[in-house]
Amino acid sequence: MAPTDTSLLFLLSCFLNPSGSFQVTPVTNYTTAEWNPQPLPVDYLATSYTPSWVPNMKKKLVNYNRNLRPGFGGPPLLVRMSLDVVSIDHISAVDLDFTICILLRQYWKDERLAFTGTNESISLDGRLVEYLWVPDTFFPNSKFSFLHNVTMANRLLRLWPDGSIVYGQRVTVIAECNMDLRKYPLDKQNCSLHLESYGYTTEDMIYKWLKGDESVRGLQNLQVAQFTVKNHQTKEMIATYETGAYPHVAFSFRLTREVAYIFLQMYVPSTLLVMISWVSFWINKDSPPARVSLGITTVLAQTTFVTSARASLPKISYIKAVDVYLLMCFFFVFAALGEYAVVSFESTRRKRKAAKREKEIQNQREREIAQRAAFVDQIFQVHPDGKLPVSVELLARSTWLTKQASAYANQELQMPSPEPERQSWSTKEEGSSSGISEETKARRMAKIREKVARIQRVSLHDIQDVDNIDRYSRLIFPSTFMFCVVLYWTIYLLKM
């Protein structure tokens, strides 16, 4: 005897005799046997015990021809439809299809199965369908479908006394859905499920919905990932082929995509990458490794986002809304990298140009120094008759000019103050005696001042202009991007 059996006997004795003494008597010759039910007989339709009002289906099926529709040779048979949507499991924008599980019910009348004795309907075993005529309904827009058969085939068969039959099935269908993805992920899609007779034309059978739009139930309570199921409607049509016109019914429902998932997966990271690319505007232009590495990293990351977005969508010819946004972000990220290229090129070009101007001014200075030296030599030149050609005042002036020439030669040129100029250049006789007019001297000095000031002004101006490119970019890039983002959402939200 197993220990478990002894424990059970002990607990049972305590429950039956809680206060008195007891004695446990082991049970001997205790055996267990597995349940081995006998298989059902072939004629399971007729049992040994059947209420008198229940029709004998075995007798009814003796002369029953399941190959002919009810009312064969007469008016077309009316078959009504209704269904409950159990779930919509997967809506694929890549394959342009959706997976739906439904409880499909078909109603028709087969007078060959009518019975009397009660007004109540009877539920029959689903396996009886193999001996009855049933509509040959199929799903024309189905890619793949199957009937659930766990723990047995999910079928419902109910019969009324007048021969009315309801036949139900649990079916999962992967059906096509022609999606327009131009506004993706701000799109709304209309998907539909079609039912049609495969072999019976409208001369033999007609399909109709049982209660119009109310024939389809369950869509209001569905929880679909990334989508919200909106209103639906039913349709009754006739499908025309080369072999004839066939009864056709369909129901369509509207799907509104939830933007939150796509927004967090694509829009937010792309926007942050654009903002990160603006950091390069605050990095010194003389740090190429920092700015170039930041620009290339953001460009590659944005390229990855564009590639992943296209991989999750079908290869279609038109542009989608998400493509517009990602390409816009890619343009701004690439423009930030290109901005540094412009800054670097412009800085190098202006430095070379400034160096060239500096060299020209240096040559001009050397020429001026040579002219000043010649002028000084002319002043101290002795007249052939042995006399000096200058007066004492001219000698004093020549001393000052010698100092100026020496200073100019050492690149320490000092512009003459108005006071000594008035003292040394006050008379016309002195100017005329030196051989150089007052006007010529003033013109030369003005040219020198202008060239020196131009060198100083151009060098400082060039540096400020290159830095201003970054300063202007700090304002222009964010403001332009914000304007494009507002314009983008305004256009696509108005189109919804």
Automatic annotation (TrEMBL):
Signal peptide limits: 1-21
Q: Where are the transmembrane segments?
A: 259-282, 294-313, 325-343, 475-494
Residue ranges constituting the Neurotransmitter-gated ion-channel transmembrane domain according to the UniProt record: 266-489
Keywords of this entry: Cell membrane, Chloride, Chloride channel, Disulfide bond, Glycoprotein, Ion channel, Ion transport, Ligand-gated ion channel, Membrane, Postsynaptic cell membrane, Receptor, Signal, Synapse, Transmembrane, Transmembrane helix, Transport
Q: Which PROSITE patterns match?
A: NEUROTR_ION_CHANNEL (PS00236)
Note down the stretches annotated as region Disordered.
411-441
| One Gene Ontology cellular component | GABA-A receptor complex
Q: How is the protein disposed in the membrane? A: Multi-pass membrane protein
The biological processes this protein is annotated with in GO are: chloride transmembrane transport; synaptic transmission, GABAergic
Compositional bias of kind Basic and acidic residues: 419-431
One Pfam family, short name please? Neur_chan_LBD
Q: Name one GO molecular function term.
A: GABA-A receptor activity
Protein localization? Apical cell membrane; Postsynaptic cell membrane
Q: Which reaction does it catalyse?
A: chloride(in) = chloride(out)
Q: Which domain of life is it from?
A: Eukaryota
Q: What does this protein do?
A: Pi subunit of the heteropentameric ligand-gated chloride channel gated by gamma-aminobutyric acid (GABA). GABA-gated chloride channels, also named GABA(A) receptors (GABAAR), consist of five subunits arranged around a central pore and contain GABA active binding site(s) located at the alpha and beta subunit interfaces. When activated by GABA, GABAARs selectively allow the flow of chloride anions across the cell membrane down their electrochemical gradient. Pi-containing GABAARs are mostly located in peripheral tissues.
On assembly, the entry states: Heteropentamer, formed by a combination of alpha (GABRA1-6), beta (GABRB1-3), gamma (GABRG1-3), delta (GABRD), epsilon (GABRE), rho (GABRR1-3), pi (GABRP) and theta (GABRQ) chains, each subunit exhibiting distinct physiological and pharmacological properties.
Q: Which family does it belong to?
A: Belongs to the ligand-gated ion channel (TC 1.A.9) family. Gamma-aminobutyric acid receptor (TC 1.A.9.5) subfamily. GABRP sub-subfamily.
In its UniProt entry, what is this protein called? Gamma-aminobutyric acid receptor subunit pi
Q: Which organism is it from?
A: Branchiostoma floridae (Florida lancelet)
Q: Which gene encodes it?
A: LOC118416915
